[in-house]
Design goal:
By secondary structure, this protein is mainly beta. It contains six helices and 30 strands.
Amino acid sequence: MKKIFLTVIIIFLVFFIGLLAAIRFRYGGGREFEDRTSTPVFPSSALEIVAALDEPPGNIAVSASGRIFITIHPLSRPAINKVVELIDGKPVPYPDSNAQQNLFQEVLGLAVDRQDRLWLLDDGLQGIKQPRILAYDLQTNQQVKRFDFPSDIAGLGSFLNDLQIDPNGQKIYIADTSTLAKKPAIIIYDAKQNSARRVLENHPSVVEQDWIINARGRKMKLWWGLFVVKPAVDSIALDRKGEWLYYGPMAHGSMFRIRTEDLNDQTLAPEALGLKVEKFGPKPLSDGLSMDLEDNIYITEVEHGAILTLGPDKNLKTLIRDPRLRWPDGLSFGPGDWLYISDSALQDVMFRSKKYIRSKAPYFIFRFKPGLPGIAGQ
């Protein structure tokens, strides 16, 4: 009897150790990345506080008329409001309280298009429920679009993270980070046809490298390194003409781009489409992106609290670096050539208790003028 019991224990331990090894192989690892910031162009005084919040913001979108919309970061497990409009610096549920409880599941990405519609990206609890995209007419605040992604486009383990909208408001490009399923890709939603396609799945340009994020001294890992935060494709931007899509995994040292003409060419086989991707230039470990009218790419640098640009000359430049920027997350141009920043402070949110998250409030929305104009909402 003792021999049988001992055998069972040994089998269990071997299985358990094997399971831990498999988890670490799939989700662990990670090396430290170099600091790619430099002397900032602007002083810290150029960075203004727009709002101080009790909950951490996710992404941000500012309309041409100056309306400011943010998501409450899903990783903070918001109890009530998931999408809000800042009115006089205070969060007000958008479009109403009913949507927060009965429609929205887990909303992170949002953007305002040139047709003055607010688009919301709901990842459906990373595919456990129903991932979808919704649009609201900002003139009427009424829902005008809704599309539920089928499981072959956004299935279990998908993570619909961020989005960009073409100038006509017809094609929407979505970064599926796919943290758990490990199948990152770009999703193209056609608002006119009300259909979606999934492209570049597991292409080297959307897959993370083996970098661990060290945000203000906290290495982003869990369970003694069994799970390391190394997000795949996350950062995504579109030039003003809608001709080039720029993107990159958060845990990657390079920015990539591809012509939207190629992305929308359904005659191209997956291998042929992959050959159309270009490595554009260097980047830091990044979260949100935006672009100005001169084709400079604005990049949130999550390790050292900075905003960088990657210009057409493919050189990085640090615009601003400030200790108040804990984890600069989303970017959006607004009227008056202001660039708005949502700071999610994820190192104080991810894998933390609600009590701890509350103790690290306030969380901030910032803005500054980078010196060049951009398109509001992007």
